[in-house]
């Protein structure tokens, strides 16, 4: 009788261990897959000498009845970029960033290394690999194309507690990146079209002070 009871206990223990181990193994698998996908997306974007990205920017907060949508363009070449959407334009020659805030008629000048590059997909994906944990959530069909949805969360407290990254299954190119803040707000960059290895005039990454003569310049360097 004691032997039978012991066997039952052992079987129960083995079964309970397998129940707890299985989800943990699945968790590790999805985290590993998420990290691999972020790495592949980063390598994909870095493989091009330049990128011209046509995107839609959507910000919303249902609790505050906020919804804004605008179209924008990103020009990338190495560390240089020009990002324009709505009333904002960010120009960087790789060392300095000029943030043109047209709604308040101000231009903020900063060192590139001191700026959070949240609109630059190259810097963002690099940051995800260094300071975030990634996890594959699921696959989904968006606009007829299969994408992998990966959630990345920061290792330390951050203004955005999570990003959701949609990576195309066919070529590991980005489909969209969506950020979630702690007040119920979401901020989404949806990529409409990407041109790769297209020559970009160097003037695109230079700040022309004469073109913004009616704006106040605030030097934060």
Question: Would you write up a description of this structure?
Answer:
A hairpin with a 4-residue loop joins strand 10 and strand 11 (186-196). 19% of the residues are buried. The chain has 221 residues and is of the alpha+beta class. Mean pLDDT is 85; it is low at 1-7 and 9-20. 25% of the residues lie in helices and 45% in strands. It has a single domain, classed as Clam (outer membrane lipoprotein receptor (LolB), chain A). The longest helix has 45 residues, at 2-46. A 12-stranded mixed beta sheet has the order 7-8-9-10-11-1-2-3-4-5-6-12.
Comma- or semicolon-separated keywords:
221 residues, single chain, globular, alpha+beta, outer membrane lipoprotein receptor (LolB), chain A
Strand order of the largest sheet: 7-8-9-10-11-1-2-3-4-5-6-12
Query: Mean of the pLDDT scores?
Result: 85
Number of extended strands: 12
Rg over C-alpha atoms, rounded to the nearest angstrom:
23 Å
Uncertain ranges: 1-7, 9-20
Shape: globular
The CATH topology comes to outer membrane lipoprotein receptor (LolB), chain A
Instruction: Quote the distance from N terminus to C terminus.
Output: 81 Å
Structural class: alpha+beta
* Residue share in β-strands: 35-45%
Compressed to H and E, one letter per element, the order equals: HEEEEEEHEEEEEE
Largest β sheet strand count, sense and barrel closure: 12 strands, mixed
How much helix is in the residues? Answer: 25-40%
Please, how many helices?
A: 2
């Amino acid at each position: 009788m004691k032997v039978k009871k012991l066997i039952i206990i052992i079987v129960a223990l083995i079964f309970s261990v397998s129940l707890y181990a299985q989800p943990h193994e699945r968790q590790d698998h999805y985290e590993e897959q998420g990290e691999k996908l972020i790495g592949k997306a980063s390598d994909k974007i870095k493989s091009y000498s330049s990128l011209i990205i046509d995107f839609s920017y959507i910000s919303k907060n249902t609790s505050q009845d906020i919804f804004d949508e605008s179209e924008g363009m990103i020009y990338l070449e190495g560390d240089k970029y020009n990002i324009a959407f709505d009333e904002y334009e960010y120009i960087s020659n790789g060392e300095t960033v000029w943030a043109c805030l047209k709604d308040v008629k101000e231009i903020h000048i900063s060192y590139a290394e001191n700026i959070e590059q949240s609109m630059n997909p190259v810097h963002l994906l690099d940051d995800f690999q260094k300071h975030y944990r990634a996890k594959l959530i699921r696959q989904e069909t968006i606009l007829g194309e299969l994408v992998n949805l990966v959630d990345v969360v920061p290792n330390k407290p951050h203004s955005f507690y999570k990003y959701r990254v949609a990576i195309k299954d066919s070529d590991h190119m980005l489909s969209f990146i969506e950020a979630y803040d702690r007040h119920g707000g979401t901020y989404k960059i949806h990529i409409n079209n990407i041109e790769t290895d297209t020559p970009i005039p160097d003037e695109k990454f230079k700040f022309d002070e004469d073109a913004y003569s009616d704006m106040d310049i605030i030097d934060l360097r």
